[in-house]
Amino acid sequence: MARKARRQFARRLRELREFELGEKLTQDALAVAFSQRRALTGAAISTWENGENDKRPSDKRIVDYALLFSTPDNLKPEPYVPAESSLDKVARQQFYTLRRELLRLREEADQEARRERSVGPSRSIANEMWQHDRTEEIVVVTSEVPEEQAPDHARADSVNYTRLARYGQLDAFFELYVRIAELGYRNRRHRSANERGIDPAHNLVLLGGPSRNRLTRNFIQILGLPIEQRIRHDEKPESFVLPDGTEAEPTMVDFADGEQEIIEDVGLFVRATNPMNPDADITICTGGYTAGVLGAVRIFTHEDTTTANIDVVRDRLGQLTNFYALFKVPVINGRVPPPRLATTLMACEVLPGHR
């Protein structure tokens, strides 16, 4: 779908900054002026001025634009956002005109974006973290339920044999598989970690930690990941050890009635060039418990948080590949809302050899 309205809105914001008052402002200078009440970065301004991005300024920021660009007087001695009550009659009229124009343009951009999302899963959805050629094969490899815990119908000799009954991390698996279908991947397959014949040179998405996913274990070592994930074969979490020796593990709460409940897990997302094939990549989504794995899947696939989380990684590292992110995963009554890196990030670094 064309992005005419979104590009028009972004172009108008850029025109205001560069030409409206006869003096060109840098993105950083505008961000400083807008930071009187709440901090803003030049990167945010850049995002708003990019018609290919679906992140747009809030109502408050629209008001900030209209106030600042209501009169050239607001540039001296340094650009600032005046109080509406301080505007004279001419500036106040310009403020009303600009605010009305920008709100209209933003609404048209929002409507265009909503129409694009409503087209359905047959149309590819933009997501900078998932930019593979949609015709290339992508293989999702999930951990496998231990044999002693597997139901009877997970056994190949059962008359009721069900292949997916062997799969661990089912919530994360179904969430991811549905999302990559929505993103337009047409050549997708899935396997459990103990299946033979998985080609390591494909685009791979590995779900689950090293205890029950051997490919995760192998690639963590091959990639030289500076974070260690402990291997466990009991019900305790596969916690993480940071380079400085700090341990990151889920948070459990003991209640007065004797019940214990997880309120926060830890998730790890890794994206790297595939060492077996430079034209493919490896994605690892793992966690202390299953909630952490699901959080690692949702962090760059859920529509409510993907763009903001991508911005956090880009602002921090300047790239969206060959990196890892370790983060907290909130768990509310057993549910896992998509984590927001702005408040949950624990560590995020470029992988060794890729700086």
Overview of the molecule:
The strands form 2 sheets. Strands 1, 2, 3, 7, 8, 9, 10 and 11 form an 8-stranded mixed sheet that branches. A 3-stranded antiparallel sheet has the order 4-5-6, with no helix packed on it. With 355 residues, it is of the alpha/beta class. It folds into 2 domains: 4-117, no CATH class; 138-350, no CATH class. The protein has helices spanning 4-20, 27-33, 42-48, 59-68, 89-117, 170-182, 214-222, 290-298, 306-317, 341-344, and strands at residues 138-142, 188-192, 203-207, 228-229, 240-241, 247-248, 251-254, 260-274, 277-287, 323-330, 345-350. It starts with a helix and ends in a 5-residue tail after the last strand. The model is unreliable at 120-124 (pLDDT under 50).
Helices and strands in order:
Blueprint: H1 4-20, H2 27-33, H3 42-48, H4 59-68, H5 89-117, E1 138-142, H6 170-182, E2 188-192, E3 203-207, H7 214-222, E4 228-229, E5 240-241, E6 247-248, E7 251-254, E8 260-274, E9 277-287, H8 290-298, H9 306-317, E10 323-330, H10 341-344, E11 345-350
Helix pairs in contact: 1-5, 2-3, 4-5, 6-8
